[in-house]
Structure formats: structure tokens, C-alpha cells
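Our collaborator T.R. sent over the components below with a one-line note: 'Predict the complex.' Nothing else. No constraints on interfaces, no templates requested, no preferences about which chain binds where. So this is a plain run: every listed entity goes in together, and whatever single assembly comes back becomes the starting point for the next discussion.
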Amino acid sequence: MNLPPKLLIVDDGDRYAEMALQFMRGYRYATRCTLQGPCWTCPRRPGCNLTHAHDAIELDQALAQHDDVDVVLLDVAFDLPPERLLPSSEPDQERRRRFEGLAILAHLRRRHPALSVILMTSKEDLAYEDAATALEVDEYVTLAGSDAFDARAVGLLIERIWARRPRASLGDSYAWGTGIAMSRLKRDATVLARTSLPLLILGETGSGKSALAEQVIHPASGRKGPFLSVDLSALPSNLVAAELFGTVRGAFSGALDRPGRFEQAHGGSLFLDEIGNLPVEGQRLLLLALEGGRITRLGESLPRQVDVRVLAATNTALAIAVKAGTFRADLYARLNPSAELSLPPLRERLDDIPALMTHFLQRAFRTGSHRTLLEEYAQAHRLPSGLPVALETGKVPSASNAISFAWSPRSLAALRAHAWPGNLRELDHVTVTTAVVALADALQAIETERATTGNPCWIPIPARLIHQLVKSPQESGGLCARRGMEWAPAATLHDWVTGIEHKLLDDLFKETGGDFQAMAARLLTGSSARNARRVHLRFNQLGLRVRADRLRSK
Amino acid sequence: MFRSEIRRMASALAHDVGKYVARTARNVSDGAWTPELVNMLLRDLYDLRGERALQAFLRLAPAATSPLAGFPEWTTAHDLLLELDAMEPELRAGHVPTLQRAALSALKVEGALQDLAQRARVSAPVRKPRGTPP
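Returned assembly:
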């Protein structure tokens, strides 16, 4: 359903709230009241002061209550006692009161950088040239001008902001977390997305560069064409040109008429991952494509015009590569390094871990085999179908409108202490793996009638599982060695754990002659057919297949 | 007085009086004067942050001392506010033609004060600080 924008009014008096309630009823309003429905139908409205925020403290309260505010209508002069104004070094109290709205705006910018604000005044009214100039460059501030009390004019401003909004809000599927650094990045990304220049995204492996390009920048760019991604580190150097620019029949033996990725991405965005690994010849060809917007297929003499927004990503410092002579300086300059987006590694945004885990859990249990397992659990406990999942960090929740996976404070501390070399990807895998294992364990507890937490909506995550998963590979390797298994280090812990699981199940499969019932008896307590089905499901999830020889033997 | 101070005074007048006095007048249409709207208009004119619009105007730009008082826009706004002040009994009685007239006058006050702010920006006299050589 397409809901109208939600507005929050911040005014020391009631003038804007009155105007809105009288003349702008087509919008939703964030109030400090807990009652549902619009204020104008409320019998308690006369004399009610919960209709809007009167100062910065009430603004924070209202925003804590409503995380879906679209536009803030902010007055500038606040005729309030000094203790209700934001702290300031300005000695002139009258001046403080007159410009309190600007102090509140700065306060908002620190906490909610990408929240759109209509400052209910005009540049002329303010007579503070420096501040007005600063406001002009703020992408998310609109001055209402002399029409600040004209409901139709303000409505038009809101509509204009709202029209920009759907593109920006597509980034909601991205794991932003709640930190200030990521809020700033979100704001920069949605702003830079609207330009047509190439964009460079920096970040360690697994920090979310590809997802940022696909889920945020491409949708916010407004480009109608497709989003295509090429991992340049995976391309042999002699195939880079053919892959990116295409070929014509006879260009080399076996060459066919085939468009390259640039042509395929016409009208859209081309994401070049690991651009730091592009061979020198590929760098030259890419530079030509970026300079003229024209590409030439291999074996062809005439260039073709393409309209492609290039998004490049790397986990290496390109500036250093330029100095070392392994990356062309002119190509680096073409990639617009002045506007690069830098994704922080997970170890620098540890406060985001709970929010990120919630995001990964919700995504993992939305559809697919994990959802099936969850539904099976819900059915076993006679819970309603389609319950969402949530993250709990301690106490047993009283509400039963979600199935909560509960991480103990000790487990969360272990996550915070981990170095996260695999960044978000690793956290995603740890979160989902532990949740799936705990869910399977909880399902099993129902069958074996083992004691549970008593609340079926609360599934505790065993601390030992977390500690096993976030152990260093060397430490875990020792365990494997004690079990007589030889194991090579993997790129991420999840890969490593999955590898062990893969090997164990494969060995068991061989040992039992492909009998899932027997495998289940070795792995799980009890011996129901459901256990066998569960093992078979995991077997398939890991990409293992029942061999033809077993089928033949049957 | 410095030009910047005069500009600031004119801006304050446009903001604190002009903007608020025309709040309801700007939005009301086709004489649809509900009791709520009448109440809003009355507050715009006679309860502007605890004082009457005319009082706020004279506080910010007193006739005797304000450098703005010499400008024709100041006189226009002042006369209109005096008229609006006199209309109070009829407005409180909900007399629709007077309400319409008051709304129009309120818009004119706003326009005059915006013009005054504009004039102050481009042509405010510059008085040099004491001790500055001629």
C-alpha cells in the first residue's frame, strides 16, 4: 500500500501543528501521543500538546517512537527558556532563541543525517548569511521561503521531497546498521548515485561493496537499464577485453558475434569488482571506454556508443597501486576518486552487530528452506504461520508476535571480541548458521520431549556454538587434527565450517552406504523419519548429491 | 546604525509579525469561515505569542526610534494593523464580510513587511560608528 509521507512538526508553539491539522490532512503525522489515528478525529485534541515536538528533546522522543518519519517541518525561532534550548556558546539569549531551529537542525544532522527537513523560513527572514549559505548546500534541507504558512506551497515542497524519496528508500534492503558512519555513507551514496560519473567503492572483502552498488546506488541512480556485475579478479587477463567489450565473428578462432558487458549494461550500471586486479591492457581499454563512452568489440574497427554508469570496487588501495605503477594514474583519475565511498570493516562498527544480525536473520528466514524449517517449528508448537523472526539479547520476551532467537550477553561479547576478517559476509553466515542449528535443535527437542525454555517463541542460541564458530581457524584446525581430519584454511570461517560439514556428511554417506536413516541415527538423538529427512535436507543444502552408484545399487 | 542591524530588524519584523499575522489568511478559501478558522485568525491578529500583532510590530519597530519607521512600507503596515485592531469586536462576532476584509488586510501587512525587508536589504542607510573619520 502506498502511504502518504509521514511528517513531524517541530515548533515551540502550535501554529504549524494547527495549520497542518486544519489544512494538510492528507498526510500522516508523527506525534508524541500513543493513540492511533489522525489528531483531528481525536476527542482529546483541544488543549493537547502531544501533537508535535516543541524542542530538541521532544524531537528525539518523537523520532524514537516513529522510525518512519519522512519529512520534518522545523521552525527556526524557539521562544523557550534557556534550559530547554540546546547547549550553545552563544552568550546572547535572544539570538540563541531566534536561531534555535538551526541548532536543532545540526542536532538532527548528527543523529539522522538523511532525514529530509523543511526549514519553515526563508533565507531573507534569517539574515544570517553564513548559516543560510551552509543550508543551501545541504541536500536534505529545503527552505519553505516566504510561503512557510501556505499549506499548498508547503504541500508542494513535501511532494517534491517525496518524489525523490522512493529511489532513495530502495536502499532499505541494505544492511545499514545504526551507526553514524553508515548513516553518513547512506546519505553520500544516495546523493552520489544521482550523478552520472563513475563511482569508486572501497572496502575490505565481505564489507558489502557489491550489495551497496546493486541494492542502493543502481536503484537510486534512476537508470532504467540493468545492473550487471563483473568480477575482474576471476577473469583471465586474455579474456578481459572479450568479456567487457564483446567480440565479432572471426576475431580469433572460435569467436562469435557476442556483446560484451558494457553493451549488455546499456542504460544501466556496470559493477566492476576488484578493479585493482585488472591487467594493464584491460586498464587501457577501460580508460578508452570511460573517456568517450564508446567501446569497440574485439575484431571490429568502428566503435559503438554505450550509456553505462561504471561502478568500480576494490579492497586494495588504488592510490598506492598508482604510485607502485601497477594501476594507471589516468584511469584512477577517471574513476572519480574524489567522490569515493569507503565502507568501514565490521570491526569498526561493532555497535551495528545486533542490527545487522537482525537484518540477516529476517532476510534468511523470509523464504526458502530456512522458512520451511521455521514453519515446521511453528506448526509443531501450534504457533500461527508466517511469524517474523527477531533477535533477542537477553530476557525472555513477553510478546509472541515473532519467533525470537536469543543471544546471551556472553555470546554477543564473543561476537564483539572477534576480529571479523570476513566482515559482514562472515557475520551473516555465523548468524544464520547458529540460528538454523538452534532451530533444528529446538525442533528435535519437541520430538524427544526434552525440556525447553517454556516459551516457544524464544529460541536460545547455545553459547558454545558461537564460540566454536568464531574461533580462529588455527585453533579449530587443531580440533580437526585431533579428530584425524586434515583441513586447509578457507577464505572465511563459514566456508571453513561448511567445508567440515560437507566432508563429515560425505564421509558418513559413504560409511552408511547412502542410508539417511542410519546417518541421522549417528548425528541426532532419536531415530524418527523426520531426522532422516532433516539430514537429507542439509545434505542437499550443502550441494551434495545422492550418487548414481547408490541409486544403481538400489 | 549599521546596515546589517537595520536589515536584521526588518527581517525580524517580516518574520515575527508579517509571517504569523497572515497564517490563516493565506490558507482560508471561499469565505469558508468555520469557528476554528475564526479562532485561528483572531489569534494571528490579537494573540501573537502573547501580544497583539500591532504591539509586536511597535515593539520591534517603534514609531519614534526605529530607522524603519521612515519607510512607506512601515507606514502601510502600521495603518493596516491599526485597522485590524479596530475590527476586533466584529471579528469576534463572526461577521463574514469583516473576516474577509481582515484576511485581505493581513495578507497586505505581510506583503508590506516583506517589501520593507527587501528595501532594507538593498537601500538601508549606513551610519558609521562613532570615532570613524569622515
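Summary for T.R.: Chain B touches chain A through 22 residues (CB under 8 Å).
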